[in-house]
Amino acid sequence: MVKKTNSIKGEIDRFPEYQIYLNVNHLEKGTYTLKITHKNKVIKTTTFKK
Q1: pLDDT digits (tens, 9 = 90+) for 1-50
Q2: Backbone angles phi, psi at 19, to 5 degrees
Q3: Rama region for 7: left / alpha / beta (φ>0; ψ in -120 to 50; rest)
Q4: Do the beta carbons of residue 46 and residue 34 sit within 8 Å?
Q5: d(CA 41, CA 35)
Q6: How far apart are CA 23 and CA 41, in angstroms?
Q7: What's the pTM?
Q8: Which of 42, 48, 1 is nearest to 22 (CA)?
C-alpha cells in the first residue's frame, strides 16, 4: 500500500529588513532595560515600563 502525502503551502508577507520586533505581552509588570550590543559593546540603551 502506498502512503498518500498531503502538503499544504502558504506564504506570508516579508518583514521589513533590519527591524527586530519585541513582544512584551508575557513580561511581568515592572521596569526593563533593553541594551543593544554590537561586537560586545553596548551601542544603545533604552528603558521602558510595562
Answers
A1: 677 777 777 777 776 677 788 888 888 999 999 999 989 999 999 999 98
A2: -125, 140
A3: beta
A4: yes
A5: 10
A6: 24
A7: 0.55
A8: 48
* Grid coordinates of 34: 533593553
The residue behind cell 521589513 is: 16
Handedness of CA 25, 28, 32, 34 (dihedral sign): negative
Query: CA 41 to CA 18: how far, in whole Å?
Result: 19
The bridge status of strand 41-49 relative to strand 31-38 is antiparallel
Q: Are 27 and 17 in contact (CB under 8 A)?
A: no
